[in-house]
Fold this sequence. Notes:
By secondary structure, the protein is of the alpha+beta class. 29% of the residues lie in helices and 23% in strands. The strands form six sheets. The chain has a nine-stranded mixed β-sheet, with helices on both faces. Strands 8-7-6-5-9 form a five-stranded antiparallel β-sheet, with no helix packed on it.
Amino acid sequence: MVVVPLKPGAELPGHRMELPAADNMRLLATLTREAVFRRLLTLPSAYRVVSRRPPIVETAKQENVIPPSIGLPPWLKKRVVLRFETRIIKHPGEEPYVVLTCGNRLRTVIEVDCGQLHEIGMPLIGNYVSTWTDNPDPKVARRLRLAGRVVANDGKVLRLADHDGGPEEMALGFAFLEPTRANFNAVVQALMQGRAERVLKEVQEIEGELRAGKASLETLQRALSYFGRAGLQIADGVPLQFESPLDQAESVPFPPAEVFQRPTFSFDPSGSRNDNWTQRQLDKTGPYDRATFERKRPRIAVICETRRRGAMAETVAHFLEGLPEVQSHKGFVPHATGLLGRFRLQKPQVEFFEAKDDSADAYAEAARNALSAAATRDQPWDLALVQVQRSWKDRPATSSPYWWAKAAFLRRDVPVQALSAEMMAMGDFEYACALANVSLATYAKLGGTPWLLKARPSTDHELVFGLGSHTHKERRRGAGERVVGITTVFSSQGNYLLDARTAAVPFDRYPEALRATLIEAVKRVRQEEAWRAGDTVRLVFHAFTQMRQETADAVVAAVESMGLSGVKFAFLHVAEDHPFTLFDHASATGKGAYAPERGQAVELSDHEWLLALTGRDQIRAASQGIPDPVLLRLHEKSTFRDMRTLTRQVSDFACHSWRTYERARLPITLLYADEIAKQLAGLERTPGWDPDTAVVGAVMRRPWFL
């Protein structure tokens, strides 16, 4: 423990001594953060300091970014929030140093109580509400504390569920609607009614302007410059000085940086057909497994509402046969030959089964009719196409036609592909692009391999795992939480091998369950690929969260128990929540102004890299703002520590999704695990779903979740 005097004459428990900053970087970073916090407390009262670790302040200059001209009441706000953090950076061969980071975002504010919202007709039942309470840290502003979910409202008192030991009833005047984006939009709908759509679009445009590269950079530079002039002290008599912001164009040393280009993909086992443009090569030569794919003439069941039978028939024809006349202004044809031509399939057997309406019962009956017809002919379906509407996402799974139909087909090992009514109403080019993505996902669901990453020379066996999780929890608070570990397994070429799931276990038993699941997964792959005990094997794990020590130990123990002696591990945390942003001065115009190139990588230390997986070319609208990179952090238990190789692999795997031809925001190891979690969440709430299907079903060996 180090006791640091902040004021002259402070009494210390021992004699006073000096500590070299270079030997105490973590202490220096902590004291810097605290100095920033103390400075924020001296700002005028209009600035609300809402957190100490890290220091977060709601700014007064942009207390509400929504102008009065839009017509919203002053108690509906979007407020700029600044978050400050300190980090230690160490370039290879250089001494470490501390950086102060600043991030800005918008916070939704709904200042009036539920009594006033009730008066304007805002529905409260089903929503969560909060109450104002003092912060445990007396120097930090009051905060909203979740009170519960509204289950009844008599106009004076709210009755709450999921209140976690708090009061079951609360007067409307003491309750405040949870300030989420969805609730903000709902309040605007209640207030503006016919004008709500236009107002929300204007609010979105304002948000986009503030998130844009130039505006964001200027906001952060002003904030950091303020602290550079503030004359901070980290201790009595120890001033804090700031250098210039980290900029390659300045004299301040900048971390090593490089750009990982789009990878090359393989379309033939012999390696003779390679390309970095997947659609072009698919149209030219077909998929990777065109010579061995077995379902050349798939049997397809189509489920749709009776009233949409004609439109669905037309869309299915376009999906299968293509839209050769639809092209971009540059001559690119996204869906020229359809599923059949692009993936070298034969004309399929297609049969329609109509649902009398859009109810769950009607869709379930149509699915049963389809399955009954297949059983009668002893010819199981290879695929089910289900017509849906995006508005159905707001329905609970217990009454969702999509989930009822999907559960029925998956129980019989039939993968499902949704086709939305909204997609059918798109403009020609957007419609063709959407169908191209649907056909790609469909071929993978059928068990096909569209392409693989070009193999890099290596003597090692390599498996890449994605570690995700799905939480069983009926309520947002309280006991009852159980975790399902989700593991996706890929070869180093990005071939989807399998996914495995643990049983639903309490969080403290997760490492034990994960160990058993990993043993089973590695055994299966080892047997299929005929590994020998002495072979060199590299196991790379991508995780959404920082891996706990117990989890890393469980993985190591699992593999050691299998008699594999030449195994190296890499545990990589792919973090989306971190304090860093990358700006590119060389790209100062256009929708992606100041955004870096996709694949831009920056080495912060021997165990941390930044990687831009969304670049300026992937920004479709200025309202998206500047994209944040991901932070890759290597766990200390890792025995394979080549961060450049691991970072390039993450970049490659983010270009390799079989769900879309676009580059993804995350590597498929985690993107697929995330999609599996979402799908399981819906299926588990669907009446009649058998959880064992997710474990033993044959369809689950294929990417059914795409």
